[in-house]
Amino acid sequence: MRIKLLVADDHKLMISAVRAALSSAPDIEIIGEASSGSEVLPLVGRTTPDVVLLDLRMPGMDGLRCLELLHERHPSVKSIVMSGNDDPAAVDASLARGAVAFIHKTIDPGDLGAVIRQAIAGNVFFAVSNRASAEAPRAECDLTPRETEILRALVDGQSNKQIAGQFWLSEQTIKYHLTNIYRKLRVSSRTEAVRQAYEYGLIENPVLRVATLA
């Protein structure tokens, strides 16, 4: 599946950086660019993207208002906020207006494609703000190194067949490992496993739930 992405940012350098970060992601195509908030909705209507990557501070219409209108008029389009503002109030305001993810502009460029794929899959979850609370469950999970590697592949959105190819294992063996991972994390699906991986701190999440971690 090819993901159609619209990027909205009033800094051309930032849009160029996004293009460069996604240059090695053949499944993600940038189909439109907006340099002001007022351009976003008309452009969404013309290009029908799957995902809008949106800055909060733009001329014409601010990002929060864009989010409200996008959620109202184009509910099937996923919105990801990418901002230099890491105020927790901005994060909460974005999520309340329909954003599926909030990432800071300091994100590792190599992580951007994974975040976009997770948004499409509905697997974007937000890192907990209290690391201490995540430490206890992490110790109880007791995943093996191989199980942790497979869990990372799940986070990247890989299928069982792709994971099997990556580790030179049979799909049946991958299913066996997934069964053990689900049991240890006390979950029953890939989506829940990804959520627990983030919440327990087993996998570092590039998506920010809050910017200031305790």
Task: Give structural attributes.
214 residues, alpha/beta, Rossmann fold, Arc Repressor Mutant, subunit A, 2 domains, 10 helices, 5 strands, disordered C terminus
CATH superfamily placement of the largest domain: Response regulator
- The gross shape turns out to be elongated
Percent in helix: 40-55%
CATH fold descriptor of the largest domain? Rossmann fold
Average residue pLDDT:
80
What is the CATH class designation of the largest domain?
Answer: Alpha Beta
What is the total number of structural domains?
Answer: 2
Q: Spell out the helices and strands N to C.
A: EHEHEHEHEHHHHHH
Which spans of ≥5 residues are poorly predicted at pLDDT below 50? 125-140, 208-214
Q: Report the major sheet.
A: 5 strands, parallel
Strands of the biggest beta sheet: in what spatial order? 2-1-3-4-5
Count of DSSP H/I helices: 10
* CATH architectural category of the largest domain: 3-Layer(aba) Sandwich
Amino- and carboxy-terminal Cα gap: 38 Å
C-alpha-based Rg, rounded: 18 Å
Q: Please state the oligomeric state of the protein chains shown.
A: single chain
Give the total of beta strands. Answer: 5
| Secondary structural class | alpha/beta
- Strand content bin: 5-15%
Write a short abstract of this structure.
The chain is elongated, with a radius of gyration of 18 Å. It has helices spanning 12-21, 37-47, 63-73, 88-96, 109-121, 131-141, 145-155, 160-167, 171-185, 190-199, and strands at residues 3-8, 28-34, 51-54, 78-83, 101-104.
